[in-house]
Design brief:
175 residues, alpha/beta, Double Stranded RNA Binding Domain, seven-stranded mixed β-sheet, two-stranded antiparallel sheet, 2 helices, 17% helix, elongated
């Protein structure tokens, strides 16, 4: 019952990577999965084995395209962490940040102000992909994709886009 759709972050997802600068990534030829860390709250939309498999399939395809192979005795363990969080963003409404002529219940005034702001509720998703060297048990690479989720519609496509964007930057310096 894992989720992981958080990389379903819309196309404006922010992607960052971090890596161990001392590691020679050409030494890694195989990978396998470690247990995923899924924190999606109570919303079942983002808590699904299907979403986890989608993420793993996309990551596997990207890693294989870079020359790594799945293995029961891997060089790298891949850990996927996903998180969702309800957020509020306060945005300025266009045209209401200045005085305007208006009416209130009691009088007309040329100096009334609109609030100029509106609050928007959304779900932010974060997906973290950690690659751990199985010989040293040290984290050697981390990719993070973060952004507003668009709900279940188009989730598969958004996962693929986010992972592709992230994996363009692996292996660091060799891709």
């Amino acid at each position: 019952m894992l989720f992981l759709g958080l990389v379903t972050l819309n196309s404006s997802a922010q992607v960052t990577i971090d890596k161990d600068e001392k590691v020679n990534f050409s030494q890694y030829h195989t990978f396998n999965w470690a247990s995923a860390d899924v924190r999606t709250g109570a919303n079942p939309v983002y808590h699904s084995d299907l979403i986890l498999r989608n993420i793993q399939d996309n990551l596997s395809n990207e890693l294989q395209a870079k020359g790594l192979s799945p293995s029961e005795d891997p060089d790298l363990k891949i850990v996927v962490h996903t998180y969702t969080e309800h957020k509020t963003q306060r945005m300025m409404n266009g045209g209401y940040g200045f005085p305007y002529y208006g009416f209130s219940r009691r009088f007309y005034s040329p100096f009334m102000y609109g609030s100029g702001y509106q609050n928007y509720q959304y779900t932010e998703g974060t997906m973290v992909v950690d690659m751990i060297d199985t010989h040293t048990n040290h984290l050697v690479w981390r990719g993070v994709a973060q952004g507003a989720l668009n709900g279940p519609r188009g989730l598969e496509r958004e996962i693929a886009k986010g992972i592709h964007k992230m994996m363009k930057r692996y292996p660091a310096g060799l891709a």
